[in-house]
Design brief:
Length: 72
């Protein structure tokens, strides 16, 4: 699984960097995105639905949000 830490970044940069990293992930593999911008989880989820990627998990702990995406 690939990882990207975007703590301190806000939208639209959260989505921009997530998309750029996902471009390097092979189809069928997963990307773990760590963010602290609450709007980022909705932005990433919506973008994934539109582009047919699967959001496997969204979890929050201690002000950090983990989003796991499976690339189509």
């Amino acid at each position: 699984m690939e990882h990207i830490n975007l703590i301190g970044k806000v939208c639209p940069f959260v989505l921009f960097y997530t998309k750029k990293k996902l471009e390097t992930v092979p189809s069928g593999e997963k990307l773990e995105v760590i963010i602290d911008d609450p709007t980022g989880k909705e932005t990433i989820s919506g973008w994934c639905r539109t582009h047919h990627h699967e959001v496997l998990e969204i979890s929050e702990s201690e002000g950090r949000i983990k989003v796991i995406i499976k690339k189509h």
